[in-house]
Amino acid sequence: MGNDVARCSTHDIDRALLDVVRLTGAHVGAVYECVPQEHVIRMTVVTGVSRRIAQPWSRVAMSAPVPVAEAARERRLIWLSGHSEVARRYPRTALAFPYHSSMCVAPLLAGSTCWGVVLLLWPGNRAPRLTCRETDAITSAADRMGEVLQEARIPDEPVRDPSPLRTLAHARPAARRTEAEAHAGADLVERLHEGLFAMDLDGRVTYLNEQAAVLLGGERPATTGARLWEALPWLDDPAYENLYLSALFSRLPTSFTALKPPDTWLSFRLFPDLTGVSARVAPASAPDAGPPRAPDPPMGAQSGAGSLFHLMHLSSALTQAVGVKDVTGCVTDQIMPVINAHGLALVSADDERLRILSSLGFPEALTERLDGLPLTVNSAGARAIRSGIPSFFADDDELVRAYPHLKDLYSDLGPVCYLPLLASGRTVGCCVLRFPRPHPFPHEERAALTSLAGMIAQALERARLYDTQSQIARGLQAVLLPRTLPDIPGLGVTARYLPATSGMDIGGDFYDLIRLDHHRVAAVIGDVQGHNVNAAALMGQLRTAIQAHATSGAPPEEVLKRTNRLIHGLDPGLFASCLYAELDLRDGTARAAVAGHPPLILAPPGRTAGVLDTTPGVPLGIEAESAYEATVFRTPPGSLLTLYTDGLVERPGTDLGAAIDDLAGQIEGLRSRPLDVVADELIDQAWRNGQGRDDIALLLIRPHAP
Fold it and tell me: What is the per-residue pLDDT for 592?
């Protein structure tokens, strides 16, 4: 019964894919199905390219920032009008798939589950927007596929693994030709003085005329059925196969020039369609600047131009990792699923001892026993680190034969490899990968895994350096920001600071609460330009200057004026915004002065929260003699004052004034809650809205009866 359901669902999915390809005019279509237990999304059927060519893109980690994974995660249709938009929104995808195509990915939804996605490609010169008819066809097909996949699920059983990748031929009317017409067509092609040949969707030559055979220098029987870049050594360059892939995926004519040894230049022009690629080859003069090259080929482990596709894709993932935790998370979440590893351990060599940085899919007894052992121990990991030579074991027997004294630990590991992590001329650790049985580790895979280990090593070394620098930076930040805020009777206060997600985890946002006398207090918040040590140093100077002028009895406008003069005289090459508010807790009055900073938001009792109308003033450090104005307002007990930096409200594509109004609306809804809850909710909302690239400082103040 289960097999019948699976066969029926497979047929329905295939039919739906071919229908949507036909209705929308797409030239490549594929269906990916989610594999929740493996945290991946896997291609199960494709049309328009061969299985070999589709294979490098057939398995994607669900956490990867690529269109197919994002469409499944966010359950929304993604439309990319061309390669430039792909590069802007998904740089990793553009790096690994550098072809001029338009792309649409739609989620397959049914019930409360996303079962997968459907991917469609069009030529890169199509219209920049989907038509209503195309959109309807895509959403209808996606709904149909989602329902089919849901119905195929057996109740009370885990979601089934998708079937192996299969390919479908484009449906097209059969051309009726007589035998005489076929012979006449062949004679026509043979009489031409140009070489002509045809390739299928896998790049194999299906026909070439005599002139093409002469020009290429190969025998017709030997060339037919082979890929040119495999049959002819002088075309054995990934760039030439990538030109074929470029024509195949873009469905646009492509041309290039190649040198046939010793000194014969040939021009090639490729004409793709739904069934393959027709090509013309002719003698050519030597180009001035060498043969034109295609975009750098994608890298993977399956085919020539794609033989290192996974490495390119995974390398781009590693470049986004910052600290050691990011690297281990990237390897675990994005690399393991793609290379189909079932276990991974990252081991460092610290103080001549093994240190397990991260482990997943290995017995706890194994990692506990190996963690902390000296490098002199006779184990596979220690040997890889000492020697710098990778080792591959296809099964338990091979591993136990090499290390019989560790039989109790190694006997149930299965296929495993130990890859030394080499960076800057030294071994910094070891990457251990565990695979399902059987796994013979062919030569190509060994080379790819060794290259991957080199990328992990470089990322790990960068990450450890970053963590060291970041630790120093955080220490400096902790010294410059107030450790605690003074406990002032009649005043509730809470503060939050979050560093930027880029840079060195250190910035110039600051806040302070200064006791002026027994009933007056000053609240300060500011933002120094930049996210580096210089910004933090200037922030420290600002805090010191403001405290000195504030405690001398100067009013808010004078505090900013004096501080501005000092900062301008220091000439740090940076400027800063600042908001300084002085509160009198005895009579409930306040004065605020602003130097180019976002306005204070005030929520008085019985009135709606709103933006305080203040004169913005010039940021500190720009003009030596800038003047500032103070605004007087009331702060009766129960009022909520919100001081913040622009990192809390700024987001791309949104007007700053509108964002501040939105913040006031959020505060209105939270005003009755405890200050800590209000602060946490505001920070969380900022992150949900996509903020976090800039520092965020937040200071909440609520006067109350002492």
Answer: 97
Beta bridge partners of 45: 31, 166
Q: Does domain 2-168 have CATH number 3.40.50.300?
A: no
Which residues, at least 6 apart from 340, have a Cβ–Cβ distance to it below 8 Å? 59, 435, 436
Report the sign of the C-alpha dihedral through residues 688, 689, 690, 695, in that order. negative
| Dihedral, 642, 644, 646, 650 alpha carbons, nearest 10 | -50
CA–centroid distance for 515 within its chain: 46
Candidates 226, 225, 278, 223; CA nearest to 247 is: 278
The first and second tokens of residue 318, run together, are 């590693």
Domain ranges of the chain: 2-168, 182-284, 321-472, 481-703
What is the average per-residue pLDDT within 202-223?
85
Query: What residues contact residue 468 under an 8 Å CB cut-off, 6+ apart?
Result: none
- Three-state secondary structure readout of 475-530: HHHHHHCCCCCCCCCCEEEEEEEECCCCCCCCCEEEEEEEECCCCEEEEEEEEECC
> What's the token pair of residue 648?
């809390």
The pLDDT tens digits of the residues spanning 334-355 come to 677 767 788 899 998 888 899 9
Contact by Cβ (8 Å): 242, 294: yes
**Which residues pair with residue 122 across a beta bridge?**
102
Equal fold, 321-472 vs 481-703: no
SS3 call for 655: coil
CA dist 113 and 282 (Å) reads 55
End-to-end, the C-alpha distance of the chain in Å comes to 76
Lowest-confidence region among 136-150, 218-232, 469-483, 620-634: 469-483
Whole-number Å distance between alpha carbons of 648 and 664: 12
Supply the pLDDT for residue 495: 94
Instruction: Phi first, then psi: give them for residue 414, nearest 5 degrees.
Output: 80, -165
CA angle at 623 for the pair 618 and 625, rounded to the nearest 5°: 95
Task: Judge contact between 599 and 614, C-beta under 8 A.
Answer: yes
Residues linked to residue 495 through DSSP beta bridges, in sequence order: 699
Cα-atom radius of gyration of the chain, to the nearest Å? 33
Q: Which CATH architecture has domain 182-284?
A: 2-Layer Sandwich (3.30)
294 has pLDDT over 80: no
Count other C-beta atoms under 10 Å from residue 646's C-beta. 19
Please give the residue that has the higher pLDDT: either 222 or 458. Answer: 458
Write out the E strands in 261-412: 264-273, 276-284, 343-350, 353-360, 391-393
Tokens of 641: 């004052």
| Report for 51-55, 159-163, 268-272, 363-367: range of highest mean pLDDT | 268-272
* Residue 410 region by backbone torsions, left for phi larger than 0, else alpha for psi between -120 and 50, else beta: alpha
* CATH architecture for segment(s) 321-472: 2-Layer Sandwich (3.30)
pLDDT tens, 650-698? Answer: 876 678 889 999 999 999 999 999 999 999 989 887 776 655 557 789 9
Least Cα distance to 554 among 586, 595, 591 occurs for 591
Q: Which CATH number fits domain 481-703: 1.10.3720.10, 1.10.150.130, 3.40.50.150, 3.60.40.10?
A: 3.60.40.10
Question: 395 phi and psi, to 5 degrees?
Answer: -160, 180
